[in-house]
Amino acid sequence: MTALGMEAISDAEIVRTIATLTGAGDSRAEDSKKAEAELCRRFAPRIRLYGLRHLRDEERARDLVQAVLLAVLVAARAGRIEDAERIDRFVLGTCRNASLRMREIAARAILVADEELDVAPFLQETEFIETGALVRCVAALDLRGRMVVTMSFLEQRSAEEIAKALETTAGNVRVLRHRAIAGLRRCLDGGLSDGAGPDTARRETSS
Hints:
mainly alpha; Arc Repressor Mutant, subunit A; disordered C terminus
């Protein structure tokens, strides 16, 4: 489907397309990318406006856009958006949860005098990750891995809360999270280029 064709279909149809094409193979990978790009194109401006209205800061609004789009794409790929016709409400709810978490984190921040700040050592060790690569690596995890990562780092749920949602134990959630993080690290370090993606890391860890 062409980019022009994507523009002609509804938001709900795009969500269904993403869910259908996920894992469909290389032959449909391009269509899947177009559908995801179109979904991001449609909702990114709305999320940014929500961020500006509630966070009152351009940089934090951009952070909100990335966090919400990542959560929406992961949910769409996993088929967890139960009512595609109400994708706008799903995005709005994700915006609320993410912005609330961002405000809570900001409220806990400790102010430090400018002269006490020494950011050079920190910046030297900071690793900047391209968002598109992170989205692809999260999508390459198995379903339970994606769910644990999403609930842990986007929804900020505890191991006990995740365990209840997945009907397992908190200890198993921690194991799943450890394996998923290891898989993401392998993927982001270039593991996918030689066929060793997150799923490979998961199999090696469990063997």
